[in-house]
Request: fold
Amino acid sequence: MALSPTDRDLLDRLLRGEPNAWELFVDRWIGLVSQVVRFSADCRGVHLSAADREDLIADVFVTLLDRDMAALRSFQRRSSLATYLTVIARRVVIRRMMQTIGPGPAQHDGAAASTPNGEPPVEQRVADREQVAQMLGGLPAEEAAVVRMFHLEGRSYNEISRTIGMPENSIGPVLSRARMRMRRMAEPT
Reply:
């Protein structure tokens, strides 16, 4: 999908520094960013509080403003702005979740024991990492690599394809098979 005229105009106005352009940009894209935050957390089995969600959304917009809007200035306009912002938001969210809760399928809620800032205790994060490592070890090497790159490193299908030499349209089916195997491994026996 190509860049729409409306999005092109809004982006141009924003990059020129026109008054109210940032507010219009945020209003236009906050729903998408919010959806990416929610989806990324759900895919990783992470329950986010409302404050955590708001912090992650803010992190995405701060990233877009960093270095004189470098991420937006580097947009080559070959895709829709929604696609481009989704990739950026997903990377920011995954990176932040990895920093705060680790790569495991931990639950991030107030009901479990947690540190003062709401993170799971180190022991839980280590146990989660060990469980993830054990589950990845039970997958065929290619599937494990794809899962690791997509879910733990936050790479796009295109990046995974280029890294391991797998056709981009094969990444989704490989992830589906791997998730199914991992679910079976996680089921109590």
User: Anything to note?
Assistant: Residues 50-73 form the longest helix (24 residues). The radius of gyration is 18 Å. Residues 104-127 have pLDDT under 50 and may be disordered. The helical segments are 5-16, 21-43, 50-73, 81-101, 122-137, 141-152, 157-164, 168-186.
